[in-house]
Design brief:
43% of the residues lie in helices and 24% in strands. By secondary structure, the protein is an alpha+beta fold. It folds into 3 domains: 1-67, no CATH class; 69-120; 141-218, no CATH class. Strands 7-8-9-10 form a 4-stranded antiparallel beta sheet. β5 and β6 (94-101) form a beta hairpin. α4 (104-140) crosses α5 (149-163). The protein is globular, with a radius of gyration of 21 Å. The model is unreliable at 141-145 and 211-220 (pLDDT under 50).
Length: 220
């Protein structure tokens, strides 16, 4: 029955992307697979310890479909000389096709890996743009050691404008627009109000590459 569930490596990558749906199966901190008596979000490590949810393939594919509008299909590719399986992924008007898999299960796992890679590549593109703006700001502010919260928020708005008006992070609930910041719990805060928060609240809310790029000890 374990073959119905996503393997450890891909389950961990889904966890890092923000997968938080209730699952029946999970891996413990020793990477041991188990099927539990109840479904829950085993990725919530504050409640469950160091566990990783193991969704079924259908759960994982549905999550990509609902969160990222990414669709897929596994097809038996028949030719004169051989029969093999292929996967098809549709994402933002882009089409990805890979053929040559011996079994449906092999094609299914390869397809899931491709979906994960696409999201990570998109996030990497955003991270590169963030770092470029941070580095340019540092050059312009050469000799100034501390960055104010207001300066960082100004940089964030510049990134949002560069990206195209909105940033959706690996956790799709976290959204930055030109006007507001929406956190993972759905709470909305205007950017001008962020500067009024304490340093601890600010760093906690902005726990992204922006803070890592600037260095949290350099924020005032």
């Amino acid at each position: 029955m374990e073959k119905e569930f996503v393997p450890y490596t891909e389950s961990l990558e889904l966890k890092q992307l923000g997968f938080d749906e209730p699952c029946l199966a999970a891996f413990n901190d020793s990477k041991q697979f188990r099927i539990n008596s109840e479904s829950r979000n085993w990725n919530d490590n504050l409640v469950n310890g160091d566990t990783t949810s193991s969704p079924t393939y259908s759960q994982a594919f549905r999550w990509f479909r609902e969160k990222y509008n990414m669709n897929h299909s596994i097809i038996l590719h028949e030719t004169t000389f051989s029969n093999d399986y292929q996967y098809l992924v549709l994402s933002n008007d882009n089409e990805f096709v890979e053929v040559g898999y011996t079994t449906h299960e092999e094609a299914e796992l390869a397809c899931l890996k491709k979906l994960i890679d696409i999201i990570n590549e998109n996030k990497s593109d955003i991270d590169d743009k963030l770092l470029n703006i941070i580095n340019n700001k540092r050059k312009r502010r050469s000799g100034k050691f501390f960055y104010t919260k207001e300066q960082i928020i100004s940089d964030i708005r510049e990134v949002i404008q560069t990206i195209g008006g909105k940033i959706t992070w690996s956790n799709p609930n976290v959204i930055w627009t030109m006007d507001e910041f929406i956190d993972s719990k759905g709470n909305s805060t205007k950017w001008e109000d962020m500067s009024e928060k304490t340093l601890e609240q600010f760093i906690s809310d902005m726990n992204t590459i922006f803070i890592y790029g600037y260095g949290s000890n350099q924020v005032i």
